[in-house]
Specification:
Blueprint (H helix, E strand, L loop, with lengths): L9 E6 L3 H5 L8 E11 L5 E9 L9 E3 L2 H7 L7 E3 L3 E5 L18 E4 L2 H17 L4 E3 L4
Parallel strand pairs: 6-8
Antiparallel strand pairs: 1-2, 1-7, 2-3, 3-5, 3-6, 4-5
Length: about 150
């Protein structure tokens, strides 16, 4: 299976590790979930570092930075019909593709690891929200590389 190029707005299946889980010493997320690529940077050694934000059904607490995924987008991506949000203050950083990128359907490898792309407007909102969180010091990425 060929991996797609990681670009802003690409929604992938990923074993996301929440900060609280990492603080407990966990190295693996509890479940695989859709995650949106916020940033992908190719380093001098040609490896690509990717920053992802998780998609969750849990409504954000008051004042928590999250971008709601439009229902039409969820349908186009093949996600469920429940309301979902992309969390802007919980991030994972890893070298692409990494061991925590997962197949959407283990029975059908042809589906690959990517659901598709967020709309440009949603992607811009997410990137801006993440920038604001990083700038304010309210978030840090959980590094997922093993070395």
């Amino acid at each position: 299976m060929a991996y797609p190029k990681p670009e802003q707005g690409l929604v992938i299946r990923y074993s996301f590790l929440w900060r609280s889980e990492a603080a407990q010493g966990r190295e693996e997320g509890r479940k695989d979930r859709p995650c949106a690529v916020v940033l992908a940077v190719t380093r001098e050694d040609e490896r690509t570092q990717v920053l992802v934000a998780p998609v969750t059904h849990t409504p954000p607490a008051a004042g928590s930075p999250a971008i709601e995924v439009p229902a039409q987008t969820k349908q186009r991506l093949g996600l469920d019909q429940e309301r979902s949000w992309i969390v802007a203050d919980e991030l994972n950083l890893f070298t692409w593709p990494g061991p925590d990128v997962r197949l959407i359907d283990k029975q059908d490898a042809e589906r690959g690891i990517a659901y598709g792309y967020l709309p440009d407007k949603t992607t811009r909102q997410l990137v801006q929200a993440v920038r604001e969180q990083i700038k304010s010091g309210r978030t840090k990425a959980v590094r997922r590389d093993e070395a």
